[in-house]
User: Fold this.
Amino acid sequence: MNLKKNEFEKPLTRRSRLHEILIALIKQQKDLELMDDNVQVFESPINNSAKYDPSKIVERNQRIIKKYQSLVRSAIALDALLESEDYDISDRRNA
Assistant:
């Protein structure tokens, strides 16, 4: 029973550690953008289509997604490094 409890706690600890690392990386970003849904693009009349270019919105959103994916991959890599060093992030010391 104790083994199952430890197996259950380890993923939660790793997940919370990944969240902490990801949040720290996000806080370091100065120009982090949010995706734009721009629903009015598809509801606007044809003559206003020059103002709203759906392809530019899609390209921008793809760029933003790639940035977030990069941050997540960086957090996973940092977590793996910390795990290999057996580092306790909550105590900020080696275990």
